[in-house]
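Run log, item B.
One chain of 322 residues. Sequence copied directly from the ordering sheet:
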Amino acid sequence: MALADQIPTQSGFGPRSEPDDVLAGVDLAGKTAIITGGYSGIGLETTRALAARGVKVVVPVRTPEKARKALADLDGDISTAALDLADLASVRRFGAEMLDGLDRLDLLINNAGIMACPLARVGPGWESQFGINHMGHFALTHTLMPLLQKADGARVIAVSSAAHRISGILWDDIQYAKSEYNKWQAYGQAKTANALFANGLSRRLKASGGLAFSLHPGAIFTPLQRHLPQEEMVALGWINADGTPSEMAQKGFKSPTQGASTTLWAATAPALEGKAGVYCADCDIAPPAESSEGWSGVQPHAADDGAAEKLWTISEGLLAEA
C-alpha cells in the first residue's frame, strides 16, 4: 500500500472501458452497496451498473427531489436515505439507520464531493472541501464499520483525483485558519486525503478480510464543475468560448459511464485481492508518477503509509472534538 505497491496488474482494460466490460462475468447478486453521490454524474452511473446486476443499492441523498428524478428510470433494488456529508449529526443519523436496517455492507463507495469552490466552513469550522470530501466520508465510514466487518470481503472505494498532485496535506494549516485560501490547492489537499484515507483504512479492515482503494476516475464533465465560471473553464482549455467542449476535452475527457468504470473495477476486480490500499486509474493500479509534472500516475505524498497514519490520527481527533 506504499508507492512500491503501485504496480499495474495489466488488467486488459483502459480509459475507454465501459461498465459492461469490467463487470462481465462478475457475480454481484445479493450484495449490498452504499454509494454517496449516487444520483449524479459518475455516481449515478455506478448506481445504475450495480443495481442492474442484482446489487441492493442505498443512495444517500441531500436533495430528495433531485434524487427521485435522477433515479426514476433505473432498474433494480435502489433505495434512498437522508444524508448531508457537511453535517455530522446527519451522518450519524444515516449511520444509525443503516446499522438498524442492514445486516452487512459489501461495498461502500465514497463518491460524493465538491471541487474548487469558494471558501466556506462546515461542521465545527472545517474548510468545506476537506470537511465534505474527506471528513464527511471519514465519519460515515467510521459509523458503518460494524457492517463492513460483517461482510465477506467488503470493499471501500474512495474516489480521489489526479488533482491530488496539486497539494499534499497542509499539516500546519489544514483548515486555512492562517494562510490565504486557494480553492485548487484545497481541492488537491482533499483528494490527497481521500487517497491516504483508503491507505489507512486498508489496515483497519484487514482483520475482517476487507479492502480499501482510492482512484482517479478520469476527466469528465459532470455537476462537479458547478462552482467553476465558464471563463475559468475556457482558460483551463476544457471548453470553447461558446460553451462547447474543446478539442482537448473531446479527445481526453471520458463519458460518465467510462468515468464510473474504474470505480466498478476497483469494487469488484479479483486482481486486486491482496493489494489493499492502492490507488487506481483507468481500470488498473496506477503506476508511480514519473515526475512532479503532468497528471498521470500517483504522487509519493498520496501513497505514503506514514502520512496516511498521521492523517488518520488527526481525523480521529477532529471527529472526537466535533
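Observations after the first pass:
- The first helix runs from residue 19 to 22.
- The longest strand covers residues 56-61.
Flagged for discussion on Thursday.
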